[in-house]
């Protein structure tokens, strides 16, 4: 199949192209790169990476070289091609569908008037603690990145800027979710009993 007739990359393919835009990487390096910070918001299984790399290479978007290793098996190191760079840039500014998030906890909140308030408040505070822990991790990573990046952190042409953007999104999300859980738990405190099933 020629590059012109090849299907467009999947979202995983574009994620891999984004990592390769930062430099050549092995399949293992790409898998690790998908964990932090990409993995905070978009997940991929390890088993998906190598088949996707093969599809990208078949489409002419990446190429690879074999690096010999003395005491370990040879490894493939992947590089983004000019066509891959063009595909990534086109995707970055293409229309993106607004995601419709499925959140079980929010769904529970819709019917929480049917349960015992004290038990529901305990469950919500556990979620608040989990989001607070995630928030602390994002803030720690941003502080670390700020020290390493220096002035490049605020340069939209620098890879550090993209890392900052992801971490700031994480901080905002985790802080808002933590606050919502704490608000809802507080509202349930002292209620004493479930509301009447006839409540609209």
TrEMBL record:
Domain Transcription regulator PadR C-terminal: residue ranges: 102-188
Thylakoid is among the record's keywords: no
Pfam families, per the entry: PadR, Vir_act_alpha_C
Residues annotated as domain Transcription regulator PadR N-terminal: 16-89
Gene3D superfamilies: 6.10.140.190, Winged helix-like DNA-binding domain superfamily/Winged helix DNA-binding domain
Alphabetically ordered keywords of this record: DNA-binding
InterPro entries the UniProt entry points to: Tscrpt_reg_PadR_C, Tscrpt_reg_PadR_N, WH-like_DNA-bd_sf, WH_DNA-bd_sf
Keyword field contains DNA-binding: yes
GO MF annotation: an example: DNA binding
Transmembrane segments: none
Source domain of life: Bacteria
Protein name: DNA-binding PadR family transcriptional regulator
Species per Swiss-Prot/TrEMBL record: Deinococcus metalli
């Amino acid at each position: 199949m020629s590059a012109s007739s090849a299907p467009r990359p999947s979202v995983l393919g574009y994620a891999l192209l984004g990592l390769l835009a930062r430099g050549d990487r092995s399949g293992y390096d790409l898998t690790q790169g998908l964990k932090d910070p990409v993995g905070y918001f978009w997940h991929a299984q390890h088993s998906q990476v190598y088949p996707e790399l093969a599809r990208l290479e078949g489409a002419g978007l990446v190429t690879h070289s074999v690096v010999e290793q003395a005491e370990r098996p040879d490894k493939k190191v992947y590089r983004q091609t000019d066509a891959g760079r063009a595909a990534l840039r086109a995707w970055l500014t293409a229309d993106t569908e607004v995601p419709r998030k499925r959140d079980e906890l929010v769904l529970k909140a819709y019917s929480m008037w049917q349960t015992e308030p004290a038990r529901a408040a305990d469950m919500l505070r556990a979620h608040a603690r989990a989001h607070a822990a995630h928030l602390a991790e994002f803030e720690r990573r941003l502080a670390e990145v700020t020290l390493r990046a220096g002035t490049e952190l605020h340069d939209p042409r620098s890879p550090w800027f993209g890392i900052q953007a992801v971490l700031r999104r994480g901080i905002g999300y985790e802080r808002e979710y933590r606050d919502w859980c704490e608000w809802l738990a507080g509202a349930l405190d002292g209620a004493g009993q479930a509301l009447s099933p006839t409540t609209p």
